[in-house]
Design a protein that fits this description.
By secondary structure, this protein is mainly α. The chain contains 19 helices and two strands.
Length: 420
């Protein structure tokens, strides 16, 4: 039995770049509010009141929506990307609620008639829209059928399927409703990534890098959804899951190996909480496999891949062998999010990949994101800022402190001289 630190599991409701703004970006940081309810001095001109900033933001979203409804695919993609940019940088639940049906309809049409980049942008937008809303079940119910069909269609490009798989698993996580729906989506993800499991003779399937990326995304989505399951449900199927994930540890793709290792320790953390005496099948063999990955120095892999793999599997090894949870902290604004369990780290890492640098902003103000990580109600920054000293006051305080230090040191020097 692993010597572990017990953690109570709490299910929450819950590497895509956030993009870069050029001079023609619809959502330029220097022109818009960071949110409808929270203002930041760095993003709003001093002479612009909240009402004016709200009008600017509304105008920009309307422009993006108009672009996303054009006939040209390139123009539609520009509009979809612009809305993604806006939703990553701002939290506007009331505004997006009033346009929920319009944006959902745009997403659905792009998923059905679009190709490649348009489908990928629409899939990403579907999740970001869900995170903007207080209740996003309708968005999930409207898009579920189309997204399920796309991700299961083997004739679609792997990159397209990966983007849809990410959007589907994320939407299900925050708005899937019944646990049976969560399990159904998990089965869809499993049916895809299981193609990377070694055959009965031990040979590893020869797959393209794009397909391996798809399998990594599906496994990551499956792991995210598994954090909604109870410890007893995971315990009932842990033996077959460990055997399956051990097979994926031999994949040629470093990202898939890491995703398999993190899924493995995530499941075992939950099972250890359910049954302290549990020990996985062939425990010594599993530990040997993890140690090999944690110390791998094969020159066949790039230096970056070796470093990333060793770092991850050292943590995984401690979690599996000793039951040791991760111990990380994420500071955002004046708050700190503690990642002190594998299920919490899994959730944070997944959303961090989707939202990129925007995750810190949303941790501070987004009600849905704060509910997922059990952070409570958002802090009112306007009230908090009222207690901050102005720059002039800070400078005056520093000058006074400097003067007092100088006077004290002068007296000390005088005493030293007298003694000498």
């Amino acid at each position: 039995m692993p010597n572990k630190k017990s953690k109570n599991k709490k299910g929450g409701k819950a590497r895509v770049d956030s993009g870069s703004d050029d001079d023609g970006s619809i959502f330029n940081d220097n022109e818009s509010l960071a949110s409808m309810g929270v203002s930041e001095a760095s993003t709003m001109p001093e002479d612009m009141d909240e009402s004016s900033a709200e009008e600017v933001l509304e105008s920009k979203f309307k422009d993006a929506i108009d672009l996303a409804m054009e006939k040209s695919a390139a123009t539609r993609i520009k509009g979809l990307d612009a809305m993604c940019q806006g939703m990553l940088k701002r939290y506007v639940p009331d505004f997006m609620e009033s346009r929920r049906d319009t944006v959902t309809d745009i997403i659905e049409k792009s998923l059905k008639r679009g190709k490649g980049a348009e489908v990928q942008a629409a899939a990403k937008l579907s999740l970001l829209l869900g995170l903007q809303l207080i209740e996003s079940e309708d968005v999930y119910n409207n898009l579920r059928g189309t997204m399920t069909q796309l991700v299961s269609d083997a004739t679609q490009a792997p990159g397209t399927r990966a983007a849809v798989a990410s959007g589907l698993s994320g939407l299900c996580f925050i708005a899937g409703g019944d646990l049976s729906e969560v399990v159904n989506v998990m089965k869809i993800m499993e049916s895809i990534y299981s193609a990377s499991i070694p055959r009965q003779d031990g040979t590893v399937p020869n797959l393209t890098p794009e397909t391996l990326h798809l399998h990594t995304v599906c496994l990551s989505g499956w792991s995210l959804l598994s954090t909604l399951l109870s410890s007893s449900q995971i315990h009932d199927s842990i033996t077959s899951r460990v055997r399956q994930l051990r097979g994926l540890l031999s994949s040629v793709d470093v990202d898939l190996r890491i995703a398999a290792g993190e899924a493995l320790v995530l499941l075992l953390e939950s099972v250890y909480d359910h049954d302290e005496d549990f020990e996985p099948e062939d425990f010594n063999g599993l530990i040997a496999d993890l140690k090999q990955l944690a110390t791998d120095s094969s020159k066949a892999k790039s230096k970056k891949d070796r470093k990333e793999q060793r770092s991850t599997f050292r943590e995984v090894l401690r979690g599996v062998e000793e039951g040791e949870p991760p111990s990380e902290s994420v500071k955002f604004g004046r708050e700190v999010l503690k990642l002190d369990s594998w299920y919490r780290k899994c959730q944070y890492d997944w959303f961090c990949k989707i939202m990129g640098p925007g995750i810190n902003f949303h941790l501070g103000v987004n009600s849905m994101v704060r509910e997922i990580f059990e952070l409570g109600a958002p802090i009112n920054l306007l009230e908090a800022d009222s207690f901050k000293l102005s720059k002039t006051q800070r400078n005056a305080a520093n000058q006074q402190a400097f003067k007092q230090r100088t006077q004290l040191r002068s007296k000390t020097r005088d005493k030293r001289s007298a003694v000498f």
